[in-house]
Amino acid sequence: MTSAFLEALIAEDVNLTLVGSTRADDIVRDADILHLYKKAGFERFLLGMENTDEAALDLIRKGGATKTDRQAISLLRAHGILSMATWVVGFEDERPRDLLRGLRQLLSYDPDQIQALYVTPHRWTPFYRLAANRRVVQTDQRRWDYKHQVLATRHLPPWCLLLFVKCIEAIVQLRPKALWRVLAHRDAKLRRAMRWYTRMGRRVWPHEILSFLFRERRVKHGPTLAEFFGAAQDAEEESMRAHTKERAVSLPRDAVELV
Fold first, then answer.
1. CA-CA distance, 157 to 143, in Å (whole number)?
2. Threshold 0.85, pTM exceeds
């Protein structure tokens, strides 16, 4: 199905720049057709790695694994496609040593770019049930956008978690290998794409720090997640599925006659 779609897209010969969002194991699964992704116009894949710690990956139950994460990045690079690794922080029992271990793991993955996000529970996920008793520190739902901490952590106050996140972003993005790709990647199109993201990062990075210090309001003793949002909905995963039921329909007499 995927290869047929890509081949049809290639056959149309349309000048496209495509950006995908997927899991690392999907990239590994499609290793033999990544050349078709490239030929069809895919420039970058945002990889939902979530975390570099196996225990955290098991906790959020999204099927990720550190082995496939590293393999996916290597495969994308071999096919001339950029990798942007999303890395999630804000799990309840995280300590400084866990974040430092995550940094070392990210450096070993060697992604082209990263995007650090905060764990944000959705009511329809199993993780929501596990986090139901955690305290909410951000009650402004407009900031439940993955870029703001919304749940309290046991060992790290918000300012400390932010400091680690910003430092890790800077270290990964400013390492010599990453800078060299931005400045001198042999593919001009990919070079422009990385430079664009770098320019955005230079604006967003200080904005998030200033916003944390002067614009956002957090609560120290907020409600639990369950009190704030209600019961979990992970048992209703089929709620978005279309259900059809047979039922009798009464039609006007003239409509029946027309039929």
1. 18
2. no
Write out the H or E segment, with its range, that includes residue 171: helix 158-174
Read off the DSSP letter of residue 241.
S
Query: How far, in Å, CA of 24 to CA of 109, rounded?
Result: 12
What does the H/E/C string look like for 181-240? HHHHCCCHHHHHHHHHHHHHHHHHHHHHHHHHHHCCCCCCCCCEHHHHHCCCCHHHHHHH
**Helix 158-174, helix 188-214: angle, nearest 10:** 160
The pLDDT score that the predictor gives to residue 258 is: 34
In whole angstroms, what is the distance from residue 115 CA to residue 212 CA?
18
Q: What is the mean pLDDT of each run of 10 residues along the chain (259 residues)?
A: 90 92 93 96 90 54 69 96 94 93 92 94 90 96 95 96 96 95 94 94 93 94 95 71 47 39
DSSP 124-155: TSHHHHHTTTSBBS---GGG-SSSS--B--SS
> Do the beta carbons of residue 117 and residue 145 sit within 8 Å?
no
